[in-house]
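Handout, tutorial session.
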Amino acid sequence: MSAVAVLGAGSWGTTLAVHLAGAGHEPRLWDHDRGHLDAMAAARENRKFLPGIALPPEVKVHAELEVALGRAEFTLFAVPSQAVRDVARRVRGAGGKSIPVCVAKGLELGTLKRMSEVLRESLGDPDPVVLVGPSHAEEVSRGIPTSVVAAAMDERRAREVQVLCSTARFRVYTNDDVAGCE
């Protein structure tokens, strides 16, 4: 069982937290919007972005970033692409030392950098993992079979994310072509 900080309580972050709980891990879901988190914790559901999908007891909702990051082995960045740099800087400032995994898609406005490049710069980590694929939160949250790719220059890191996320209905392949996968 791995402790995982999931940063971003939108549909994809919530889905991944639910998925990781079902895979036997300990996800901690964080978001900048305390009111949204309070509503989720009370209802045990993300009614705003993922109605109808219950949060299992293993999913812990935290408004304090430091608490969500505490002893996490992996940190999933599921925030909007325009927030990745700011959140990554906050993670670095909080002393986060886990393997960064980016599930945010797109390019940063202004710099046109890929999300892995933004994380590399902001965290000082030379090889963040990107988890990408033709997937939809609504489908994954309902157990519809899905395949994605964990890409990193370091094959070991990609395989660690593969082991973390793989289930019978969520197949993770690995690749070292980070730019191509993004």
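The second record follows below. Compare its token runs with those of the first.
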Amino acid sequence: MSLLALAFPELKQVDYNFIQTFRKKNDEFYFNLVKPHFSVVSPVDGVAVDSILEEMRNKLSPINRFDFSIRCAVMSKDAFSENYYVRLVPDKGLSNFVKIHDKLYDGILAPHLNLDVDYIPHISIGTLNNKNNCKILVDGINKEYLCIRGKINSVDLVSFENNAITQIERIKLK
């Protein structure tokens, strides 16, 4: 069982529908696995649930809820496979995500931080094995006016096991 920390955004219905329609067409595996989210801790193994929960509660308790906005899609290459991703990256709120990520990896999760992979907060909406097709999708999104606004009110500790995501606890932000 792997543990992750995910921030599920509060979105307007029209934005949620856009994301989910795109994901259903271009990211079927993840579409069926988990709702749109920002990962703040990547999958980790070998850490006790109680330990990580206590640390998350302590580190997240002073953090305020925050707004974010997304105005573009970006393409990125998976560090561990031949896949390419279509990702929505926030401009407003970016520093909040980075600070939460850094705070959670300062402590018992420090040994699990992979410094070979950049942390860029995002909502993944497409997974493709062809970089040219990925670029076409990203360009198509960015040719249109895109402004997705949302809120982050909490961070969830979840488990990933047997191709299923299960919520362990939702930790509300201040």
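Points raised in discussion: The chain is about 30% helix and 35% strand.
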